[in-house]
Amino acid sequence: MRGIVSVLQCCSAALLLAAGSAMAEPELLQGTVGQAKVLVELDLAKPDEVTGRYFYQKYHTDIALDGALDKQRTLRLSENRPFFSTKSVPMQWTLKQGANGRWTGRWASKGKTLDISLSPVALPPARPDDLPALDELRRTSPYEYLRLKGLSLKKDRQDTFMGYGLQWWVEPVSRIRLFQLVSSPTAMDLSAANRTLQNRQWQEVNSYFGCLSGARDRETEFDQTVKPVFINDSVLSVSLFTSYDCGGAHPDFGDAPLNMELATGKILELEDVFWLGKGPSIHYERGMDNLEAYSNYREQLFAPWVVDQFKRLYPELMNDDPNECNYQDPSVWQFSVWYFEPRGIYLGPTFARAARSCDEPGDTVIPYKTIKAHPGPVKVTLPE
């Protein structure tokens, strides 16, 4: 996140959150279209601009709904209407609301009609062992929560990495893969790390369906390459590189690594293990109060320091030729992608979309000797 958030912006965000919490929640319905089971979400807050989505439980992929609720309480909806289109589209859904929140009606398309029957969904009670990603969705998006609860992970291949046994798991619909740890060189409890890995896998599955949902009926791409890059008895780093086209103006790609403490499964931020500032390290995740200080630290201290280090370590890379990638620009290192690797901590630049090909410069690694000279508050064991 670039730039500094002003007090006015913070106040505006708080007001928007307060206003959003006062709005009616979307209706969550389950039932059938013909004989097929569906889950439906409808936002009826604006009767003349009703929006929603649904999926067939056999396929799990969203179909967008748009339409209006007239004064006679008849709801008419079209499917996957193109964004910003002013063309008239057929209304495939016609519904009437009955008692106890039930909706009944008809789906019609190309001369075919099917009966629709929907009723409100009662969420199952929360479970204490629910993963954090699922627990958050249960509170913020019950529709997406129920979609994921209808899916499961299947065992895939096994392999080893740096002496640790890996069992890969795949979610068959999205084809999202991630591993869990099944053995280690020395006896240790791997359950917390595996819970964090499983949690991240479900987050990626949800991102896959979110990408498809945003594209409506346009072509989409969501290809992910996952590989472990470092593990010892203290930390684990995993690269999750995704190429995606979610129906926007341009496709995109990027790495979103997972870095954690192995024993606790705690996700690590760079400032946990490497800190150039004075006083306690700053995490922007802790809230808006720290965002300005965090941004200032990254912009004024961290990024210029990285440029100076890489000028010394990788002089052939650090040129300012306007026809090439300008790695001397501190702003491209301000919010670096990072992960542990055998020789040190890898830092990857972040360029604007037009220069995104510059995001992969190669082995831009800060050696562990330098990292250890600037430790963060979390004590981790790193190679020499």
Automatic annotation (TrEMBL):
The keyword Signal applies. It comes from the Bacteria. Keywords: Signal. Residues 1-24 form the signal peptide. The keyword Signal applies. This is Protein of uncharacterized function (DUF3298).
